[in-house]
Amino acid sequence: MSSISIFGLGAMGTALARTLLKNGHTVTVWNRTRSRAEPLAGAGAKIAESPTEAIAASELTILCLVDYPAARAVLEQAQEALAGRDLLNLTNGTPGDARELGTWLAARGAIYLDGGIMAIPPMIGGAGALILYSGSRALFDRHSSTLEALAESRHLGEDEGLASLYDIALLSGMYGLFSGFLHASALVTSAGGKAVDFLPLLLPWIEAMSGTLPDLAGKIDSGMHGRDVVSNIAMQKIALENIVRASEEQGVAPDFMRPMLRLAGDRVDSGGHGDDISAVVEVIRKRK
Ligand code: NDP
Description:
- By secondary structure, the protein is α/β, with parallel strands linked by helices.
- It has helices spanning 11-22, 38-42, 51-57, 68-76, 95-106, 137-142, 144-150, 162-190, 195-210, 213-222, 233-249, 258-269, 280-286; strands at 3-7, 26-30, 46-47, 60-63, 86-89, 111-118, 130-135, 152-155.
- It comes from Sinorhizobium meliloti CCNWSX0020.
- Pfam families: NAD_binding_2, RedAm-like_C.
């Protein structure tokens, strides 16, 4: 069993601490607002009086704060304790935030692993929870059994920014799905339908269309967007125009759909009529 310190006892930090306690680890906690730590003391955690004391207490320190400025503010209070210590930051941010913190910690002799939590607090320690990691592989290997108690673990590489990048990419997929669902629901309910009754049509359709993603992914990786195309982008641009026109007819704002129409249109206008929809990636990669 290992000793772990946790900084940040919001909903997520508390779930991490409780899971580690349940698994028999020695847990030390520190939170800006001390009263939030007290229920955990009842469950067996030690409360540190300062960030320095918390880092010194354990083999691994986990940060789970609201954002990177908060994480940095806490670490600045404990600079003298950082040399040679293992630090895992599970605070959500951008790849740039993670790389900048990694550089700052390396200058103080700390070993750094960044992580992106693909779960909500009640999922921690249970099936379906995933945490993506990047940064020090040595730290990840040293603490792998502790990390496995929290969630399935995946180390993506030594570049500290990768966990955040993949976290954001997964969230982008999720919000794409949500925006399609919200727009479709607005259309159906505009004619008196019920979103709940529409789901038995929508869910198998989404599943069937998900089956086209391996082919599109292969085209994105190879850049061969014109290979074996069954639904060319010029045809799909017209379908997108029809979605926008139909939405307007129904009094539904086409705001979710207009960007896709514009991007597909850009590819068609630059001569890509016969390409697959995968070619939109070429358009957005070039845009800043
Ligand atoms: P909460 O809002 O519940 O908790 C925020 C924590 O940050 C508290 O411990 C708070 O301390 C601390 N904090 C805020 N500002 C400062 C500061 N300036 N200095 C020191 N501590 C500070 O957030 P969550 O626990 O839900 O989220 C924590 C991280 O986990 C976030 O990065 C979030 O994106 C990520 N995450 C959360 C998920 C969720 O569903 N909850 C899912 C996946 C990731 P205090 O008690 O003193 O206010």
